[in-house]
Amino acid sequence: MSRTTWVLLCLWSAMMAASPVPAAGIISVTRGGPDIKVPPTQPDNATWRYGLGAAFQVGPRQAILFCGIRREYGPGVDFEIGTDGILFDDLSDVRADRAVVLSRNHLEPNPNSDPPGKPAVMVKYPVQGGFIPRGARRADGSEYEQGGTGFGVASAIGWPAANSDASGGEVWHSENPRGVEPFGGNEQHKYFEVQQYAFDGESFRVVETRKVGESELISGWRVTNRGLGPAILDGEDLLLGMVGAPVPRFGTVAPQPTGAVLVRWKHRNGKWEAADIISVTGGDNSFEPSVARDRDGSLLFCVRGGKEPDYNDVRIWRSTDQGRNWEQIIYVRGIIGSTPINLNPATDGSLYVASNLYQVHMHPWPHTYRLPRDRQGNQRGGGWLRETLALWPLRADRTGLETPIIARDCRSEFGTPPGGSTWNVDHPVAVNLRLRDGRWHNVMVTRILEYGEIVRQLGPAPQSGAYLEEVHSSGKPVPAWRFED
Questions:
Q1: 316 to each of 241, 346, 439, 485, how far by Cα in Å?
Q2: In what order do the strands lie in the sheet with 48-59?
């Protein structure tokens, strides 16, 4: 060892001694390659890629990944295919060949089209839901009767179906450079698919799938969309963030604007059903909410802004009475992109927000792409990019955010995307899982793809796929579930 190296090591040791590791909080995150890319059910004449996802505990040392599938070379923006469920018990052994089909697109007539009955492709978006693991126990040691069961909610949205040419191929009619869009206006056709699940220790099954309209999920409410994070336990129930608004009492009154809501799901007569709903943000157009349990038992609720100037802000609410009343406790302006945001628990009970760092576009931009614009038509030079994913720990007193950790910097890691647009690393959803080794792991699921795959129907970049990364924290693990072993 050279003298220079020895001096540097001494300086490093002294610095570490002066800056002890915090008692709790995230300290690092892995940066691996795509864990799954191609669904085993991909047809020979199509190109599919795994993307958006979230994981759930299903047994004492078993988990399942719910992973959405997108169609590459698709006819329009965000043309999804459905969702698969993949059982795993080790982060080094997540295999697509174990996939169980949860949902797939299908054709049906659109009852709202003009004229009625136009063929529609019901495009199935990623499933959001919750699960009580098999073998999970209450605080008193008794086992949950509803253990090994759960539910999922997927949006099904009608798109105009393709015509067939003489060779049997697809012909999608659109003059929009972004491609075909879903039926809109009075022709809009959409509903939820609500599923019931069961896990017997070996296999994961979809027990039931039923269609539920926006105004049918909960009486007196119009629930329009799913949230982003998974449901969390509250006593015997599961709590899920969604999007909705009260239904006006009189039919001639215009629909109220939607906002982020908390939905309580109960297990009744062998099924999970939505039983209660509480507005958290009011009708401010917020969406993609996530809910987490804090160390003191309170609930925290985070949302994505649905209008300016909230697009680039971090906003978090707290409830100390099981979700009945809420107060906003964190409001930080201008630090994230107008992109998905999720509130995640670390294994040691600390909490962190995951989203894309606010960045200004600083790279050459092909003339075929247009910069996003605000509602006044002005170009947005920044605040929409998804190239860098950051994790912001919440302060211990929950009054703000700590300095972020960069979880992924795609431009630095991968260079310029092959299609010349930008990278997307987004929808960061994390959950604490107990796996084969008996340890608790904070598993964050993200997707990576090129922006041009979404808006210009490009083929997949080599990096496109679903990523499962582990977020490490310094404190003692706080079990997310109780198990006998």
A1: 13, 17, 30, 36
A2: 48-59, 62-71, 80-88, 100-104
Establish whether the linkage from the previous residue to 289 is cis, with ω within 30° of 0: no
In this structure, the dihedral spanned by the alpha carbons of residues 448, 466, 233 and 245, taken in order and rounded to 10 degrees, is 50
The whole-angstrom separation of Cα 58 and Cα 435 is 10
CA distances from 56 to 115, 150, 195, 199, 445 (A): 43, 10, 15, 12, 11
Q: Which two tokens stand for residue 18?
A: 């002066």
Three-class SS of residue 421?
Answer: coil
Give the pLDDT of residue 171: 81
Tell me which amino acid residue 438 is: G
If DSSP codes are grouped into helix, strand and coil, which group holds residue 269? coil
- Fold type of domain 34-368+379-473: Neuraminidase (2.120.10)
Please tell me whether the peptide bond between 115 and the residue prior to it is cis, using omega within 30 degrees of 0. yes
Alpha carbon distance 96, 398 (integer Å): 39
Express each pLDDT in 308-317 by its tens digit. Answer: 889 999 999 9
Whole-angstrom Cα distance, residue 56 to residue 432?
8
> For the segment 96-153, what is each residue's pLDDT rounded down to a tens digit?
999 999 999 999 999 999 999 999 999 999 999 999 999 999 999 999 999 999 999 9
Every domain of the chain and the residues it spans: 34-368+379-473
- Evaluate whether 402 touches 394 at the Cβ level (below 8 Å): yes
The secondary structure of residue 74, as a DSSP letter, is -
Tokens describing residue 48? 């599919």
Q: What percent of the chain has pLDDT over 90?
A: 83
Tell me, rounded to whole angstroms, the distance of Cα 462 from its chain centroid. 22
Each residue's pLDDT tens digit, 280-292: 999 999 999 999 9
Which phi-psi region, left, alpha or beta, contains residue 224 (left: φ > 0; alpha: ψ -120 to 50)? alpha
Cα-to-chain-centroid distance, residue 445: 8
CA-based diameter of the chain, in Å? 84
Give whole-number Cα distances, 484 to 137, 199, 212, in Å: 7, 18, 37
Question: Could you tell me which residues come within 8 angstroms of residue 92 by beta carbon, excluding any fewer than 6 positions away?
Answer: none
pTM (predicted TM-score): 0.93
Pairing of strands 62-71, 48-59: antiparallel
Q: Pick from 56, 46, 38: which is nearest to 97 by CA? A: 38
Quote the tokens at residue 276: 């209660």
